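Milestone M4 deliverable, item 7.
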Amino acid sequence: MSDSRPDSTEDMQTIAIGRLVIGLLQGVALYLLWRVADEPIWVAQLRPLFAAAALVIIYVPLVALVGLGSLRLRTFLAWTIVAALVLAGLGVHDAGRAIDARGGPWPSFGLWVSAAAMVFIAHHLIAAADAERRIIASYPRYFEIAWKHGVQLALSGAFVGVFWLVLYLGAALFDMIGIRQVRDVIGERWFVFPATAVMAAAAIHLTDVRSGLIRGIRTVALTLLAWLAPLLAALTAAFLLALPFTGLEPLWRTGRAAALLLGAAATLIVLINAAYQDGQPDRPPPAPLRWAGRLAAILPAALTGLAAYAIWLRVDQHGLTPERVIGIACVVVGACYALGYVAAALRTAPWLKPLESTNIVAGVAAVAVLLALFTPLADPARLSVADQLRRLRNGTVSAAEFDYYFLHSSGARYGRSALEQLAAQGGAAGERAAETQWLGTRQRRQHRQEAAITPEIRRANIRVWPDGRSLPDNFLRQDWSTGWPQPSCLTAKAECEAFFGDLTSDGVAEVLLSAGGMISAYQEQEGRWELIGRLEPGTCPGLVEAMRAGNLAPAPPRFADLDVAGQRLRLETGRTPVSGCGKS
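Output delivered:
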């Protein structure tokens, strides 16, 4: 990549190859990450490293795909490295604050969403500045780049979806003539991840070279959205005018007033920007939109103020919780928009011009707030635990009324640490804290026992038939503590019996585990064993004894299924029992 923008066919071909290579590498990395996700070592000791790798593998290639060819080389390298380091740090902190591994080694859902928002906003602040060679670019540049990439990503997602529809349609055609290999191949994870990533990279490149198409789609979409601004502005104004007559109590009774108010404010901001677009004076919106835009620009301030008041009431009554800390963070960002938009509405000309600087400042504020929330600086769990302890110590809430279980369930590692400190101090609060610790330990005991089951313990507790045969090593080593409920011998120190039978008629025997009157069938798929179904022997006498003797074989169904235009219909006679002891 050179310091100049690509302006030749050769340059575009080089960029295309680079993007496809990035997509392929991302797909392979995702497949490898998925393969090791259930290994106990990643869930326990190396969880921070896994979470960091997951965020980097998902988001950094996207930064590279979009930035390739549009950023100068030094900017491209610097931003890619910084993004990788920041994302890795967020992943490490997110994994480190968690108490147990019930969610596996993956980052939390909130971090996935927030990281996407941070990367998107930061990238376009950097890309616009790099394009104009100055720290703060002109607003039309921010608008052009951000909306271009937003439409690109949306179209790329749609393209990948259609790509998979076409593949499955082709597989269905081959299925009709008895060739199942196509469906088998496209269902394999080693194909799914690289194919999806490569197609996404190809879609980003194809849409990048068709800037006119992107601009046209963007204009149509924003024009349609803009005409919803008067509707929402009228509804919101009517809602605010009705509040003096209804009072605020009905609003508080919903239990989600702050979220609804902030959501309405955010939607208004989006619709206002759809009407404003790049703010060029030679393309002003129609007069009805301009008047509606002024009204709409005032309303977010009122909505954000009501949301702030709703959160303050709950905090004053019950203290901080992680959800309220996040709500406060949203209010801070919303206030940046609201105050700037009020100033824009009150300015006579040009129409809503201060909106431009407001959007830039609010974008920077949003990135800063999100970074603070997902680092120790403003970790919602840390702030909540500190505030709840403050209320306990200053007597705002008594030791008898204090919610100790909140520290255990919602305080992450900060809450558990606080419980330990309270228990060590003794007194009424210490007794209640110790009791909560004990109850929490009981709730976690089973999960910890599941995580502690080693392959050696499983090998000793599972009796394998026939004699001389053994279970596959990767079956014994697989982590069975998450997902569907499994036989107890896989997740605890309990006994069961294992058999082998080819239930899928592919020449490879499945593993059958018998425990508690139920037989669970497992099939190996891409190196992992998956539960494919269960058999219910009921109370049939001598059945298990016959299986131990090796007297078992797959039996063809009495009636074949009927294939109608790709839909499989199964005959239900109404007389065949679900489980029974009769002869087949």
